[in-house]
Design a protein that fits this description.
It contains three helices and no strands.
Length: about 70
């Protein structure tokens, strides 16, 4: 259970970080909405506060994908 909660927290933090980096309003809204969904999963599992987490390894793939998208 703790591993699941950690995963949800990491994903929420990563979405918030990507929202901060987003240049388009729609992209920011998307990432913030996704962060809220991850946070709701944390809350459903008994943890109300999202702790600071390091970006997950898979986030670098997402970053590269969006970097290419912005460059185009």
């Amino acid at each position: 259970m703790a591993e699941t909660i950690d995963f949800f927290q990491k994903e929420a933090q990563e979405c918030k970080r990507l929202a901060d980096q987003a240049t388009a309003k729609k992209d920011r809204e998307y990432w913030l909405h996704l962060a809220q969904r991850w946070e709701s999963l944390v809350q459903q599992n008994g943890v109300a506060k999202i702790e600071t987490a390091q970006p997950s390894r898979s986030s670098s793939v997402v970053q590269k994908r969006f970097a290419r998208r912005r460059a185009a």
